[in-house]
Write a structure and sequence with these properties.
This protein folds into 3 domains: 104 residues, Barwin-like endoglucanases (Beta Barrel); 26 residues, no CATH class; 130 residues, no CATH class. It has 10 helices and 5 strands, in the order βαβαβββαααααααα. The chain has a 5-stranded mixed sheet. A hairpin with a 4-residue loop joins strand 3 and strand 4. The chain is elongated, with a radius of gyration of 30 Å. The N and C termini lie far apart (64 Å). 14% of the residues are buried. The mean pLDDT is 80.
């Protein structure tokens, strides 16, 4: 949620003139991003009563416009309203919190000029009662992501646990499959096929299973990532699937395939022919 002055908000080029003027005329008016509107079904003209926590009380806003992102990578899960509406109410309920601004958004003509503008702003307010820290929008968003390190660490731990569980399930599957085919492997040995050939059969079966499972996961990953970005893009705006991630998925599938087939392959190769022919799966 973002407060705004009477100046036009970001993404204003994706907002119709009619909605823009309606928002400027209404002190309680607000603008809703398309992604946020789609999630909650907001429409132009809806009245939104919000119960404040940082700013206590019930705040009523009227949706005067829905803005679009300039492209699919833009996060539009935002609500923008007039800072004056908030400030006037605070003057009556919490005077010590009125007439204050926490964040300013400054536009620059070219990305190359951003560092010099940031240094000039910080130099202007250095050693004052309100020193500033000017940074790019990406760095600002990464600051929120950095605060989620514990969540990310927990996700990593869960990922490792899932890999171990998958390895255990796969190993159990291959062990059961090899045990049920002991007689078949013994027959192949009697026909002249060596332990290496038996081991290759088991490794091949394990590889096929893991390639199918891993391949389906890799194919589904971009769609899952898009869904995650749609619902949680506001909190993880830089979330995307890189080629390295897909390569690591393929490597994990290969490791699981090899590790799951090692023990069944060794046991099948060492089982004597007579004992194998007498075995019952």
């Amino acid at each position: 949620m973002t407060g705004s002055s009477d100046k036009l908000p970001p993404h204003s080029d994706q907002l119709s003139d009619e909605q823009r003027q309606a928002w400027l005329r209404d002190r309680k008016g607000c603008l809703i991003g398309r992604q946020l509107a789609d999630v909650y079904g907001f429409k132009v003209g809806d009245v939104l009563p919000l119960r404040g926590t940082i700013f206590p009380g019930t705040w009523e806003f009227v949706v005067r416009g829905i803005f679009e992102g300039s492209d699919e990578t833009k996060v539009t899960r935002q609500m923008m309203f007039h800072w004056d509406y908030l400030n006037e109410t605070l003057r009556k309920t919490a005077k010590n919190r009125a007439d204050q601004v926490g964040i300013y958004v400054v536009g620059v003509q070219t990305p190359e000029g951003a560092p010099s503008v940031a240094r000039a702003i910080d130099a202007t307010f250095r050693n004052s009662l309100a020193e500033t820290l000017t940074e790019s929008e990406q760095a600002f968003q990464l600051g929120f992501v950095a605060m989620s390190n514990e969540i990310i660490a927990a996700i990593r731990i869960v990922s490792y646990v899932v890999i171990v569980i998958i390895l255990a399930v796969m190993a159990n599957t291959m062990a059961m499959s090899a045990r049920e085919r002991i007689a078949e492997y013994a027959t192949l040995k009697a026909l002249g096929f060596g332990p290496r050939f038996i081991a290759l059969l088991i490794f091949g079966e394990s590889a096929v299973i893991c390639v199918l499972g891993g391949g389906l996961a890799i194919l589904a990953m971009p769609y899952v990532a898009d869904a995650f970005k749609h619902f949680a893009g506001e909190y993880f705006p830089i979330f995307e699937v890189s080629g390295l991630t897909l390569a690591l998925q393929a490597a994990c599938a290969l490791v699981v395939a090899v590790a799951a087939a090692v023990v069944p392959a060794v046991r099948a190769g060492k089982t004597p022919i007579v004992q194998g022919l007498r075995a019952i799966g």
